[in-house]
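User: My instructor asked us to take a sequence, write out its structure as tokens, and then describe one feature of it. I'm not sure where to start. Here is the sequence I was given:
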Amino acid sequence: MNLDQLRTLDAIVSQGGFRKAASSLNKAQSAVSYNIRILEEELGFPVFSRGGYRKQLTERGRAIHRKAQSLLLGMEELEGLGKELNSEVEPLLRLDITSICPLGLAVDALRQIGEEFPRTRLKVSMEILGGESLVLAEHVDLALADVVQHHRDLEMLPWRRLPFVPVAAPNHPLGQAAEPLTRAELINYVQIIISNRTEALAETRAGVEGDLNWTVADFATKRHMLVAGLGWGYMPHELVSDDLQGGRLVKLQFRDLAEECASLFLVRKRQRVHGPVAQRLWEVFANLSQPHESRHEDGQGKG
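Assistant: Let's start with the prediction itself. The structure tokens for your sequence are:
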């Protein structure tokens, strides 16, 4: 059997008869009948019943048609992929998004890309601190990163500045402080901080010098530990706004520590050919960026 026979079978079923199938396939009705006759001979059983005014699929014919539909769909996808590869549209796009990124904005951008390039597969990872190292190693094509290190081989577009707030549980000693806290007071309590999972960059950030640090790998774990009263720490305001409103966490007031922000960058590798999907995603994300005071932000935010 061949694809032409299977397409003929599917056309007869979908169009409701041999004559309409012939018209949809731009074939003579005799050619349609011939294809089905040869198919039945090769199978060794009838695909259509011969009784009644309209030919109906036999039980075994229905099984053959179901399999034929699956094969035809696979062929359509394969043909579509071939066309995309020939047009240099990437079959796969790899994106890393830091977990402090406002996911609502990222989702809107990805939805737009999905609509414009429906056959491109998307693989999203979420690295905390150091997503730019994945770009340098070409493990991902683009990243929305809270940059740890700058590199001459990276193109970095300032994207967003996100506020961080120092928080603790209301039953934690720091959460019960009546007066603004000093650095000297903080070093006596556990600060929960984030460390990235890349060994080459496995250094913690946002610690108070001389303090007692507990290190975790993600903000979800950090939030649970903070709510449980195990320490204090900086958190993206967006991730703890509900906890602050619900009284599960309280914002700490500091006397000699400034408010903190994380600078997010859109990152890609220089001197690398970026396909049309990667280029379009860069443009979409760039349109969502906020103006920065300087294009040379140091990228140092709170973990």
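For the description part of your assignment, you could build on this observation: The chain has a mean pLDDT of 83. Try explaining in your own words what that tells you about the chain.
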